[in-house]
């Protein structure tokens, strides 16, 4: 019940009470989806790759032809202060930028840009004893780069993700695996995907979906560990014959996949190694 939380939210340069952080019903982004956001994790009071997240917020806004009215440095400061005000150590943060209610038209050029950051306690995306994700095949596909600003973390991009995840959960799966407009493996509804075959790590080329910060981190860790890695277009039969499959994301972290459709998988040694390395990196070597 996030709407019932207590604490503060940083909004347009000021800290306001959680229950008072409100917007008008005619807010442009509510009607047309013209906003951008980030999802960030704090571990032991430190936000992982905070600057990269806030720079991406700026970059996403630029792809949607608007400008964030606060610098990356100011967003960093606000996020750190927010954690302290709310007495949070292990937390999830949601920076968001949107167009206001001055004008309700398809065009957003005459609307002010607002920015907010919310933060709340967060331990794990999945309950204790969770063994891995069960994925179904998604109905919706990721569009071509000339159909949508595919590299922007934009509100409107997630409509098909919501539809796909709702469907998956209604059928007893955790998430949906989405293809792209060409029929290649793309990603899950909010996480990037990797597969292991014969000791080699593969991941789809991020040319029509978000190149996630956690995705890039896992690629860096794999290279540092001298794990062979290939970015390539992957067809569905290839991933179904994989030895291991896992997904990555700021919220999900690194999660093994134990089922795609009817095909089952084991959480293998490379998945386990990368999971441990990632956990050690984000926590600074502090357990739990």
Q: Your description of this structure?
A:
With 288 residues, the chain is of the alpha+beta class. The protein folds into two domains: 120 residues, D-amino Acid Aminotransferase, Chain A, domain 1, CATH 3.30.470.10; 151 residues, D-amino Acid Aminotransferase, Chain A, domain 2, CATH 3.20.10.10. 27% of the residues lie in helices and 27% in strands. The protein contains seven helices and 16 strands. Strands 8, 9, 10, 11, 12, 13, 14, 15 and 16 form a nine-stranded mixed beta sheet that branches. Strands 1, 2, 3, 4, 5, 6 and 7 form a seven-stranded antiparallel beta sheet that branches. The longest helix is centred in the C-terminal third of the chain and has 15 residues. The radius of gyration is 19 Å and the shape is globular. It starts with 7 loop residues before the first strand and ends in a 5-residue tail after the last helix.
Key features of this structure:
7 helices, 288 residues, D-amino Acid Aminotransferase, Chain A, domain 1, D-amino Acid Aminotransferase, Chain A, domain 2, alpha+beta, seven-stranded antiparallel beta sheet, 16 strands
